Amino acid sequence: MSHSNDTATGQVRLAVVMDVLSVAVFVIIGRLSHHETLTPGGLLRTIVPFFVGLVVGWTAVVVLRMSAARWRGGVVVWAATLVVGMVIRHFTHQGVAVSFVIVAAIFLALFLIGWRLVAKLVKRHS
Questions:
Q1: Which residue ranges does UniProt annotate as crossing the membrane (predicted)?
Q2: What is the domain count for the chain?
């Protein structure tokens, strides 16, 4: 395997890990801020809609042959995570108040797009 393939694979792995961690942090902070327990069942109920959205976003990035580690890929992942997550929450009666959608959109954008922009700046200056 060539060096460029190793780098691409490493970038993809990093992007997956960072995105999963970003969604997990969002869910944990959200549950704690609403004084909800961090039981496995509660966490699973809250995180699954957003993880499904994350998978949809990653599928779109792969199908569109976008770079998952670049900000444009992050925008696709963010939009899918947010929209699919909220649709699933709506149909599972978990609540999608406008204020929650706004907070989720901002937090997920900061994390799912933000880490990609930081990585780009770090790479540019190294």
A1: 12-30, 42-64, 71-91, 97-118
A2: 1
